[in-house]
Write a structure and sequence with these properties.
Elements: E1 2-6, H1 19-27, E2 32-36, H2 42-46, E3 51-53, H3 59-64, E4 70-72, H4 84-87, E5 92-94, H5 97-116, H6 119-127, H7 133-137, E6 150-154, H8 158-169, E7 173-177, E8 189-191, H9 196-202, E9 205-208, H10 222-225, E10 233-236, H11 245-253, E11 259-262, E12 282-284, H12 295-312
Parallel strand pairs: 1-2, 1-3, 3-4, 4-5, 6-7, 6-9, 7-8, 9-10, 10-11, 11-12
């Protein structure tokens, strides 16, 4: 049985460490591990692989894998794997949402605190050696408390559910919007996408934690931004494609919303000439929400358990609905 690990990304941390394949083979000696960091000759290497670990694979590359039975995405998102050929197959697809969910949720809560407590402004004043107690206390929006405020949460998967759990512990009122609006545990109310505008209008903080699908692409556009309170904040830790960035830049520039914090963007790295850099009411983090010194150890715990399940013929953790794309 052959496992092909193929991850190539310009950000080194996303690439599999050398020890990954070695540890898999040590713990599962019956598995032949082929670990690579380039797509050169991928068709040759995937031809006899039964398992593929990676976050991207074109349709023609997938079709070369005649023996494939299981594909595991080392990212939470799977849209870069979801070719028409894969969707039409009976191949099992899993993702790493349980690896990234809790860590990304921590980042989302951190961004909410930073916005509520005006920390970006404090950093700017510090760099100018200005004691800005008066300026920060009376700026717009003024410093806020998370406790008692309303969180509108779009998406309730591995990230969203963790964000909700933390927000509830902080005393926030949590409203959830999800594609299938079954009740989310502990939150005040759960709505379908048809009620999104109502939730936006009530939210002091609007957090995006939804996957990219045809229904969610540019979900937050000029019309939706117009429903936000003038002192409300938008936080995106999901995918940049959920936001119409031009519309957001316009709303921020004209102070129609309180501010925003973005960890993800339509095009990454964010171009140096992007107008988003110039907005003083936008906090930018460079897609670091999932970054953790424990990330690959967390990956390995999931990989080890799922390999054990696969060999025993048991259901795998983190299975993806290929038709819905998450």
């Amino acid at each position: 049985m052959k496992l092909l690990i193929l991850i190539h990304h310009p950000f080194a941390l996303w690439n599999a460490p050398e020890w990954l394949g070695e540890r898999i083979h040590r713990d599962f000696p019956q598995i032949e591990v082929d670990q690579r960091n380039t797509y050169q000759d991928v068709e040759e290497h995937i031809r006899d692989a039964e398992i593929f670990f990676g976050w991207s694979l074109r349709g023609d590359q997938f079709l070369a894998g005649k023996k494939l039975r299981w594909i595991h995405s080392t990212a939470a998102a799977v849209h870069q794997l979801m070719s028409l050929e894969l969707r039409a197959s009976d191949i099992v697809v899993t993702n790493a949402r349980s690896v990234h969910g809790p860590v990304v949720a921590e980042h989302a809560i951190g961004l909410m605190f930073a916005l509520a407590k005006c920390l970006p402004a404090a950093v700017r004043y510090q760099q100018q050696r200005v004691w800005a107690q008066e300026q920060i206390a009376y700026q717009h929006p003024r410093p806020q408390e998370l406790s008692g405020s309303t969180l509108g949460l779009i998406g309730y998967g591995a990230i969203g559910s963790e964000v909700a759990h933390s927000a509830l512990a902080l005393g926030m009122r949590v409203l959830v919007v999800r594609q299938h609006p079954q009740k989310a545990s502990g939150v005040e109310q759960t709505f379908g996408l048809d009620r999104l505008d109502d939730v936006i209008a009530q939210s002091d903080f609007l957090v995006l934690a939804a996957p990219v699908t045809e229904k969610t692409r540019h979900l937050i556009n000029a019309e939706r931004l117009a429903h936000m309170k003038p002192e409300a904040y938008l936080v995106n830790v999901s995918r940049g494609a959920l936001i119409d960035e031009a519309a957001l830049a316009d709303a921020l520039r004209n102070k129609r919303i309180g501010g925003a914090a973005l960890d993800v963007f339509d095009h990454e790295p964010l171009r140096s000439d992007s107008p988003l850099w110039e907005l003083d009411n936008l906090l930018i983090t460079p897609h670091t929400a999932a970054t953790s010194d424990k990330m690959w150890e967390r990956h390995y715990a999931l990989i080890q358990e799922n390999l054990r399940r696969y060999l025993d013929g048991q259901p795998l953790l983190g299975q993806v609905d290929k038709q819905s794309g998450y």
